[in-house]
Every structure is written in structure tokens, then in C-alpha cells.
Amino acid sequence: MSNKNSSVFPPDFVWGVATSAFQIEGASAADGKGLSIWDSFCAKPGAIADASNGDIACQHYQRWAEDLDMIAALGVNAYRFSVSWPRVQPAGSGAWNDKGLDFYERIVDGLLARGLQPHLTLNHWDLPDALQATGGWANRDTTQRFVDYALGINARLGDRLASIATHNEPWVVATLGHEAGIFAPGIKSRKTAAQVSHHLLLSHGLALRALREQGVSAKLGIVLNLAPMHPATDTAADRAQASLEDGRLLRWYLDPLFKGAYPSDVLADLGDDAPKIEAGDMQLIAAPMDFLGVNYYSHSVVSADKSYKAGSTGLPVTDMGWEVYPEGLTELLLRLKRDYPVPPLFVTENGGAFKDQMVNGQVHDQDRLDYLARHIEAVAEAMRQGVDMGGYMVWSLMDNFEWASGYEKRFGIVHVDYQTQQRTLKDSALWYRDFLQAKKQF
Ligand code: FCB
């Protein structure tokens, strides 16, 4: 396996590992940090499966130097991380927190000193709680607050960043956070969710324009969670439902970003819940990007009566209950190239949660190792078929706070013992290191 696809990947291909601030940093109130909507959400009874929170997490705020050493030792050339907005601007507007900015300065300079490219995400979901008090992403004014935040980060760190992604997975923020209510801020309104999705896209467009005016050397883009939608059966009902779900998850974001318009079938389905759009918004959203980040975990199998059970057709499922389906990644990347004028694509997240066992200081996570190997091969296959790929990043560097699942789900290629904070490279990490090493010798 390891050398089969070596020749497809150019020497400057970006190989990385990914994390996000709230999931690893801990130090939730240290050095002047403000609260985020995830700090508040975790405090709601029943919101998080194991009643945990991000107060300590992986203590990355304290252990960042050893963590960066660990990343470098994997032999990757890039690290994707996010900035906690309330750590650097506690109220989401106005005063900046120097101690918070200093922390990210240490990360960026520490990465560069180790020969690693910094890939920064501005919004990996931890909106300042103070902005939620004035409506959060449902309030159009939050888009301007986001522009100020983006400009502040670019002014301080931009000259040393390889890339800046505005948002991570806006669908999750809008739909899980504001329609299903199972993620922060825990709102249950389809109308609010639709407006939030528009404001996230608008703030992306506004930030891109402002950053380019300010002067930016980092590549600019956005990160979407995308999955091919497969009807469970060939019935008209399942096919129609899969097509609508494809509209909601993929085209609702891809069409405005690359075609300047929301898809008409989803707008029709939303009816009175459709978002308010002001003149000029759609042109802003469709501003050219330097890259598109794709987070891929699985395909989705859609049945109109919701009867389909993951794994029932024999595909293995991960500990999240998601089917392992690497072919879907090739299919997705080819579809993006076919349907949209996309810039270079990066897989910005890919990985699996599995029930790991630590035995004599080792974690033989063959399932995760196979998962990664097969998905990297799926990327290679898309490249052989002409897709312009810039990089691939594993989710995640280490076990961490998996949102509403708390610490019960482990996605890391590095095991974290939450009692001692000891990090242990799992077999998947050793495999990734050897895979990258072999590539260098090729
Ligand atoms: C993605 C998130 C990431 C992580 C993975 C498992 O939706 O971007 O933070 O939780 O799922």
C-alpha cells in the first residue's frame, strides 16, 4: 500500500494533522480568555454525553511546545489549527487580549521553527459568548465583528501563515447548532438556521474582501463538510429525498460560493424560512478563493422514511456509527471538479473514531490505520483522474473533546490519557510517519 500512490503526490503536497482550539486547548478562563458559546453549552445539563467540558481538554495551552515537537516527529509538513476568538478578543468586539494573541504567536513561530506550515482556521465554532447575547450568527452585525476579528488576526500573524480558512463547516454551525439544537448554541429553529447559514457565508465573503484590501500573503478559503448522498433504494421517494439532502448539505454552500446563488429546490423547500438576503450579498459570497477545504468522513445513505441503518449493507462502521466508505471521497472530489470552478482542493479533515485499547503502552488501532490508508488512496485516485489536490490532513492529531460526545469518542492518531495527559503514538501515527518517510525516499 505505502508506495503504490507515492508517485501521484508531488513533493510539495501538504501533509498534515488537524485540531481545533476548543477541542484541545483547555485553559478555558486563563490569561483573560472570554467564554465561548461552547463553554456555556457544556454547562447545560444533558448537552454533552459524558457531562464534560473544555476546561482542561488536552492542556494544549500549557503543553503546546511538546505537542509541536510531536507533530514535527510525525514527519508531516503542515498543521491545521484554529484560533479561539474569545481568547484573543474576549467580548468578540473591542479590546484585544495580548496574552491570547501571544499564545498563537508562539504556535505560529513554533511551527515555522520546526519546518511546519501553519494553516489557521478563524471560526471552528467557539463564538464569543458575548456575541451570542446579541443574537450570535443570527444577527447580521456579527458578520462585521467577524471581519474585525479576521483583520486583527491577519495583522498580527498573517505574514507567517500558509493559509487562513474563514469558517469550519458552516452547515454544522447552522444546522446542528440552530436547527437540531444538539450543538452550541442549542437553538431549534429552521428559520434561524437558514439565516445563520447566510450570515456565515456573508461573513466569509466580507472577510475575504477586507483581508485582500488589508494585504494578505496567506491563501484564503473556507472548509466545508461534504458527503455524497446515496439513496438507500432506487425508489422515487428515496431518490427525491437524497437529492434534497444533497441540496441542503452540499449545494446550499457550494452554489453561492461558486455560482453566486442559492439552489432553487432548497429555497422552495424552505419557503417562508428562507433567509433574508440584501443586495450585493451574493456577489460578496462568490468572491474567488485560493483553496477549498473538504472535510470527509463518510457518505450518507438517505431513505425517505429514515429506515436505513448504517452498516446494514455490510460496510464497517466507526465508533460514531459512520460507514467506512473511501470510494465516496474519490466520488466527491470528482464531482466538485465536474460541477464547480473550484480552486485547489485540500482534504482538511479525514479520520475515524474507534474503540482503542491501550495494551502495554501501545495502541494497535489497525481499523484507524486501514481507514487512513484507504482514504489516502482515494485521494490518489481522484488525482489520477485529474483533480487538483493541494493537501491531506488527518483528523485528528490527538484524542480530544469531541463536542456533544465529550471525551467518549477518540479520533486521535495519538492517544491521550486524560488523567496524566500523557501522549502515546498509536499504530496509525507510526504508520503515517513511515508512509511519509517512505515518500521522501522515493
Ligand atoms: C468535524 C469537526 C471536527 C471534529 C470531526 C470529528 O465535523 O470539524 O472538529 O469534531 O468532525
Secondary structure layout plus pairing:
Blueprint: E1 14-18, H1 21-24, H2 37-42, H3 60-73, E2 78-82, H4 85-88, H5 98-113, E3 117-123, H6 129-132, H7 141-157, E4 163-168, H8 170-178, H9 190-214, E5 219-225, E6 229-231, H10 236-259, H11 264-270, H12 281-285, E7 291-295, E8 300-302, H13 327-339, E9 345-349, E10 358-359, E11 362-363, H14 366-384, E12 389-395, E13 414-417, E14 422-425, H15 427-441
Parallel strand pairs: 1-2, 1-12, 2-3, 3-4, 4-5, 5-7, 6-8, 7-9, 9-12
Antiparallel strand pairs: 10-11, 13-14
The structure holds beta-D-fucopyranose (FCB).
Give the helix level as a range of percent.
Answer: 40-55%
Based on CA atoms alone, the radius of gyration comes out at: 21 Å
Query: What is the overall silhouette?
Result: globular
What's the overall average pLDDT, rounded? 97
* Main sheet specs: 8 strands, parallel, barrel
**Ligand inventory:** beta-D-fucopyranose
Tally the helices: 15
Assembly type of the chains comes to: single chain
Low-pLDDT segments, ≥5 res: none
Q: Element order, helices and strands?
A: EHHHEHHEHHEHHEEHHHEEHEEEHEEEH
What strand line-up does the widest sheet have?
1-2-3-4-5-7-9-12
Number of strands: 14
What percent of residues are in strands? Answer: 5-15%
What gap, in angstroms, lies between the N and C termini?
Answer: 14 Å
* Structural class based on helices, strands and sheet pairing: alpha/beta
